[in-house]
Write a structure and sequence with these properties.
Peptidase_S1, signal, hydrolase, TRYPSIN_HIS, 6-stranded antiparallel beta barrel, 253 residues, Peptidase S1 domain-containing protein, 34% strand, Thrombin, subunit H, 7% helix
Length: 253
């Protein structure tokens, strides 16, 4: 059976990245231009990039639950101290530029477990000031049809076990239906959006929590890869449309 791996940079075993352990970038992608993805943020823990996220209001960022906590020895999910987290918005350079804002509250889905309900919100200490480089993105308003093209972005590794890029990367993937996804990976739920890609393309460590977008809306939250980055298996993203009520309830939307 194929093995799942989160896309966060933290350790060799997980796909969340840190400066010390290379994070996965969008594999096979292109370098983003300034202002191309004004909703994209870099989530930083203790000053180092670990995940991506999407600006949804001036006060809230949408990301993955596995980006904001860990499982203890009793397999209980423990949130990180918000004081250790900041976001960088308005820059394609993960080292500099844009606005650096502290996180004051983490709201992870109460039913998060492994790959299910992998959704979280970050409340910011100071409201973002919107500009051409910093903008919110609307939440998914409907299901995305099978076969449609989706844009993903992030600072994940450029290849499995490869380097973490300094500049934001992006790529285009295709949506699979639930039945098509089930045939490819041993995971079946309506809460997942399954994204197909060519070999040596797709999401990787460091992309966790980042956006998948369609028609100007965020439709997915980067979650996991199967068989390593850029494998022949599709990538798994939490489906925003499935979680839209939870997101609205816990943010000021």
């Amino acid at each position: 059976m194929a093995k799942f791996a989160f896309l966060i940079i933290v350790s060799v075993a997980s796909l969340i990245s840190t400066e010390g352990t290379p994070a996965i970038r969008v594999v096979g992608g292109e370098t983003a231009t300034e202002g191309q993805f004004p909703y994209q943020i870099s989530l930083r823990r203790n000053g180092l990039h670990s995940c991506g996220g999407s600006i949804i209001t001036k006060d809230f960022v949408l990301t993955a639950a596995h980006c904001v906590g860990y499982n203890d020895d009793d397999d209980k999910f423990i949130l990180h101290d918000p004081k250790t987290l900041t976001i960088r918005a308005g820059s394609t350079d993960r080292f500099m530029g844009g606005a650096l804002v502290r996180v004051v509250e983490i709201i992870a889905h109460e039913n998060y477990a492994d790959l299910l309900n992998d959704v979280a919100l970050l409340r910011l200490e100071d409201p973002l000031i919107f500009s051409k480089l910093i903008q919110p993105i609307p939440l998914a308003s409907s299901e995305v049809p099978s076969g449609e093209k989706i844009v993903i972005s992030g600072w994940g590794r450029l290849e499995h076990g490869g380097d973490i890029p300094r500049h934001l990367q992006w790529n285009t993937l295709s949506v699979l239906s639930r039945s098509e996804c089930k045939d490819r990976i041993p995971y079946d739920t309506d809460a997942l959006i399954c994204l197909d890609h060519d070999v040596d393309n797709g999401a990787c460590n460091g992309d966790s929590g980042g956006p998948a977008t369609y028609n100007g809306e965020v439709v997915g939250i980067a979650g996991f890869v199967t068989g390593g980055c850029g494998s022949s298996y599709p990538d798994g993203y939490a489906k925003v449309y499935y979680h839209v009520d939870w997101i609205k309830k816990h943010s000021n939307l």
